[in-house]
Every structure is written in C-alpha cells, then in structure tokens.
Amino acid sequence: MSRVLVVLETANGAVKSASLPGVTCGQQIAAKDGGELHLLVLGADVSAAEAARGFGAAAVHTLTAAELEPFTAEAWGDAIVHAARSIGATHVGGTATSTLRDALPRAAAVLDSPLVSEVVAVKAVDTFTRPISAGRALVDMKLSGPVAFFTARATEFPPPNQGGSSPVKALGGTQLNTRGVTVVGVHKTESARPALTEARVVVSGGRGMREGANFGVLEELTDLLGGALGASRAATDAGMVPADLQVGQTGKIVAPELYIAVAISGAIQHLAGMKGSKTIVAINKDEEAPIFQIADYGLVAKWEDTIPQLTALVRQHKAAN
Amino acid sequence: MKILVTVKRIPDPDESLKFAGGGLDTSSSKWVPNAFDEYAVETALRLSEVAGKRGKKLAEVIVMSVCPAKQRQHVTQFLAMGADRGVVVDHNPDELDTIAISKAIAGVFKQEACDLLIIGKLSQDNEGNQVGQRVAGLLGLPQASFAATVNWDEGANNISVGREVDDGVETKRVPLPAVVTVDLRVVLPTSVVNNVTPANHKYQEGPRLASLRGITMAKRKKVKVVTLGDLKVAATSTERMVNIAAPPSRAAGQRVGSVEELFQKLTKEAKVL
Ligand SMILES: Cc1cc2nc3c(=O)[nH]c(=O)nc-3n(C[C@H](O)[C@H](O)[C@H](O)COP(=O)(O)OP(=O)(O)OC[C@H]3O[C@@H](n4cnc5c(N)ncnc54)[C@H](O)[C@@H]3O)c2cc1C
Ligand SMILES: Nc1ncnc2c1ncn2[C@@H]1O[C@H](COP(=O)(O)O)[C@@H](O)[C@H]1O
Q1: Sign (positive/negative) of CA torsion B187, B193, B198, B199?
Q2: What mean pLDDT is predicted for residues B38-48?
C-alpha cells in the first residue's frame, strides 16, 4: 500500500496555492491502491500545518529548523530525505515549482530513486504520464525503485478534495546542512496582476512588439481583463519585459480560459507552455505564422492597428455589463 | 580550477517526431547537441578565459558525455568550440536510467577532481530537469540551478549565481566545489563574468561558433574513454517507458476578418469576455 508524501510550500501561515496541484496528484496516487496521503510542511515557522489539515491526509508532518529558511535545495533536500525515511514513504512529490524542481531531484538521488517530472496524469500507482520534446509526445513511465519521486504539472490537476481533519505531527530532529551557501536575496518582479500560472486571462507579446515601451498597450488590455502579462523568449531575452514572464518549454506553463498571443510566431517551445489554454487568440501580421495552426481565432493584422481597438471594445463591454 | 561540462546529443528538435512500434523512430534523425549544453559550454569558456587575451586561461574545461564511444561527434564539436579535452563514458544512454547517468557524471567529476560542474538545466528531448540536482545530491555538493547569471570570485573561491525562480531572480552564493545548472539567459552578453574580465565586457549573444582553427585543433585534443565499470556504476533501469503517443490535437480554428468580428466571437461564441 502506498504512503504518498507531498511537500508543501507555505507563506504567512498559509499553504501556497501553487502547492495544491501537487496535493491533488498525491491524492490520486494514494487512491490507486487505497494508500495514505502524508503532507510535509518545512520552515522556520510551521504554523501553516494547521491550514493543511483539511485534505484528508493521514498526517501533516512538520520539520522546524532555522536552516530551512530561506529556501535552499541543500537543507530542503536533507529534510525531505529525513521525512521520507521517517514516514516510510513509497512516493515523494509535489507541484513542479522552481522550488521543488530544485530540491526533489537532489533528495531522489540520495535515496537512489527515480523521479518523473511534470506529471500530467496518474495511470497506476507506479505509472505516470508526462510530456516530452516540447509537448509533442506523451509518454507513460513506469517506475521501480525504493521511492517513486514526482513533480506534478500545475495546469493538469484540479483543486484537491477536502477531507477529515488530519493530525499534525512534528518530525524528530535531524542534521540539516546548507553546505555553505548564502541566499543573498530574491529580486521579485512586483506586479499587482494575478500570477501568470493562476490567471484566467493571459495576454502575451513577442518580438514583434519591438520594444518594452510598446508592451504598454498590452498591459492596458491585460488589466482591463484582470489578466496576467506573458511573453515569448524573444521578448524576454531582448529585455522588453522581465524574464519570469516567459511562457513556454523553459518558462511558465499556463492554461488560462483565454490566451491572447500578440506578435508571437508560435515556435514549438512557446506552444509547449500555452497550448492547454481553453481559448487561444492569435494576432500576427504574417498569415503563415505557425501560431495560427493552434489558435481558435486568428486575426492577420498588426498589433498597432488592432489592440487599441480591441481594448476600446472590451472597455465599452465592461461598462455596459 | 577544473570545470566539467556535460554534453548530450539529441534528435534535432526542429524535426517532427516519428511514432513507430510503441516508441519514437530516430533511425533517420539528425543528431545535434542539446541547446542547454551549448549554453553550459559557453558559460564554462567565459569563466575560463581572460577576455581579450587569447591563450591566457583561468581554468581547464573538460566536456563529458555518456554515449557510445563511436557516436561522440558532439564531443568533438565542443572541443572545436574551445573545450580543452573530453571524457566519454561508453554506454548507450537510452539503456540507462537517470540514476545511472547521474552516477556516471558524479564518477567522472570525482575521478578528474573537478571544482565546478556546469550542466544544462534540461534535455530538450526528454525534459527531465533533474540530472544536475541529482549529481549535487550524490556528491553532497552545493548547487545553483536555473542559472541566468554566474559571477566567479576566484579569491573567495565561490560563485554568485542569479537563479531564475518562479517569482523573479534569486541570488545565491555558493562555495566551490559546486554544481550549476544553466538556463537560457546565461548566454546573454553580460551574464557571465569572472574576476579578471573587465566589468564592461560584452560577449556576443549566444554560444560561440567553432573557428576554423578550433576545428583543426579539436582533432588533436585528448578524449578519454571510460566504462561504467571503471566508474563502479551499475547499469540500472528504474524507469521504463510503457507507452508513447502524440497528444490530442486542437480542433482547427477560424480566421476572423476584423477586430469587431474577433470581439463578437469572444463574447458570443467563446463567452470568455
Ligand atoms: C532550448 C530552447 C528553449 C526555448 N524556450 C522557449 C520558451 O520557453 N518560450 C518561448 O517563447 N520561446 C522559447 N524558445 C525560443 C523559440 O524557439 C522562439 O525563438 C521564440 O519563441 C520566438 O519568439 P517570437 O515568436 O516572439 O519571435 P519571432 O519568432 O521572431 O516572431 C515574431 C512574430 O511577430 C510578428 N510581428 C512582427 N511585427 C508585428 C506587428 N507589428 N504586428 C503583429 N505581428 C507582428 C511576426 O510576423 C512574427 O511572427 C526556446 C528556444 C530554445 C532553443
Ligand atoms: N547521456 C548524457 N550524457 C551527458 N550529459 C547528459 C546525458 N543525459 C543528460 N545529461 C545532462 O543532463 C542535463 C539535464 O538533463 P535532464 O535532467 O535529463 O533534463 C543535460 O543538459 C545534459 O547536460
């Protein structure tokens, strides 16, 4: 029977919403063989464990240590290894965030165990579906080994089921070693907009926007729609917008209700990050642009001639409703 | 200082995939180096050189690959680009799991007594995004993954790495020996500096091309061939692909002739506004 350990990320006494898809994936794995879900809260302050009691887990485990904050893969790796051993976990995972993509493979190596990344579906207790080659193929991977590690792709798992109130259990002490690293600081991209990965609408601009200042017209439309701003690699590399707005194979994976791609050609690496969107709109002056092959609505036109008008129509519509 | 860089060959990501017999048919594929490994080699070369002074070097750059010894053209390519020598672990990587590949890399790192491993954050084909972190775990070394900038302080024997994280850029200072996995932006013109290259130096964007001289020189550079057995690594297979399929394709969309029409479709048909 499985004992599935899901690592949570918390902030200000709450579970980060980014962690929830990993919980759902964990619930689905445990359900495959009537196993147990276990949750893990790590940090200097683990009060968020209280907020994790409603997911039907057999227990919410906590491990408190100063070394766990700020996050380092070194200390978190040690903590995850210790927790997995203490609990006798058959599976260890969580959402495929930059944090867990950093720490989980490190822990998996120490436990001599395989890891399946970016899981999009749970086929069996040991078999998981994941995309490869920029989303051009889906493979089912069957794992064997002491522990099966996984990261879950956020866009593919709905919010977790609610369940009875889980006990909170503190794990016994262990040595955590940051191996001499120092986190000097995090330069956060300040924005009042919703997170790119959680927004209902995403408006993305590409190289054809030419310069950062021109993103202003996209921002106006984005804010009117209550959405998040995205970009292609060409736009982020050119410094038009911050790097963390990049959508794609090596950027954010998004699946909003509405994705508007403006002046983006539609390279496979970009499509890999947005083709799960419900409705896709493409505005591009080149009628041959590959983005049109996956767009629900394609408009062959320049952004200069179309975005201001679209913004005006949306504004009228909002005012009337 | 010795920098080890891993390089992998992959089927050209610009070619379409051929599904055949429950797998991918790569028999007629063109093989190319993984882009992130080109970025990794470029990072190592920038760290190792005193910009503007040819010949003067701060570090030796060793490229390694787990591949059949006869299929090491990509290793030669990186020697032509400027790496000093190569190590090939003679084994078909398709018959190994990530555990074994990571152990082989850790084995070479130890055997060569390296100070820094620079590795791509991702293989473009199988997209594991895990080998570098694993090697760090196996060796008990500090790690800086998803590097967009690298700044080597020789005197302090550490590197400061700007890491691309979900909500911005984290700066992490890491003592050597260490493992760095590189992201796309590490090859922008000012992303990599060492303590001797002038602060205002700008590299050409992207990985450098091999020069004619480099191509000639590459043939004379040493490539050591070792086996998994030499490294005391078992050929494990804990990951098995049991099925592969093309993802469901999106239904064909429609062209709209005007902004007005687009707006009508979005409000009335897709009902997303
Ligand atoms: C290893 C690797 C990983 C990568 N990862 C990513 C990734 O995660 N995300 C990503 O996006 N890319 C990624 N890329 C890059 C990708 O291959 C493309 O180069 C990139 O997506 C192109 O960006 P673009 O569409 O903005 O630019 P281009 O391909 O140059 O397209 C610009 C488009 O703008 C249109 N245009 C120009 N002017 C106007 C105008 N006035 N009005 C309307 N349209 C106009 C043009 O017709 C053109 O179609 C990766 C590449 C590699 C090698
Ligand atoms: N067979 C191999 N030989 C050398 N390096 C490899 C091999 N497989 C993977 N790697 C390295 O591991 C990195 C990350 O790969 P992955 O974790 O599979 O996405 C790649 O960028 C390569 O540098």
Answers
A1: positive
A2: 97
C-alpha B114/C-alpha A74 separation (Å) is 20
Task: Quick: pLDDT tens for A12-36.
Answer: 999 999 999 999 999 999 999 999 9
Judged against a pLDDT cut of 90, whether residue B213 lies above it is answered with yes
| B259–A313 CB contact, under 8 Å | yes
> What is the complex's ipTM, to 2 decimals?
0.97
Measured from CB, residues less than 6 Å from any atom of ligand 2 are: B 6-8, 34, 36-37, 65-67, 93, 101, 119-120, 122-123, 126-131
The answer to whether B2 and B62 are in contact (CB under 8 A) is yes
By alpha-carbon position, which residue is closest to atom 23 of ligand 1? A234
Q: Which domains does chain A have, with CATH numbers?
A: 3-170 (3.40.50.620), 201-320 (3.40.50.1220)
Which residue from B87, B1, B92 is spatially nearest to B49, judged by alpha carbons?
A: B1
pLDDT tens, position by position, A175-203: 999 999 999 999 998 899 999 999 999 99
Residues B91 and B226: beta-carbon distance below 8 Å: no
Ligand nearest to the CA of A205: 1
Q: Which of B238, B244, B257 is facing A137, going by the closest CB pair?
A: B244
Chain A CB contacts of B127 below 8 Å = 117-118, 131-134, 249
Task: Give kind and range of the element (H or E) at residue A306.
Answer: helix A303-320
Chain B contact for A275, CB < 8 A? yes
User: Is the whole model's pTM more than 0.80, yes or no?
Assistant: yes
Does B198 have pLDDT greater than 90? no
Q: Which helix (H) or strand (E) holds A20?
A: helix A20-32
Task: Enumerate domains of chain B plus CATH numbers.
Answer: 2-242 (3.40.50.620)
Pairing of strands A14-15, A10-11: antiparallel
* Mean pLDDT calculated for residue range A220-234: 98
| Number of CB atoms found within 10 A of residue A243's CB | 21
B249, burial (CB in 10 Å: exposed 0-12, middle 13-18, buried 19+): exposed
- Pairwise CA distance, residues A22 & A94, whole Å: 4
Q: How many CB atoms lie within 10 A of CB B15?
A: 12
Per-residue pLDDT for B52 more than 80? Answer: no
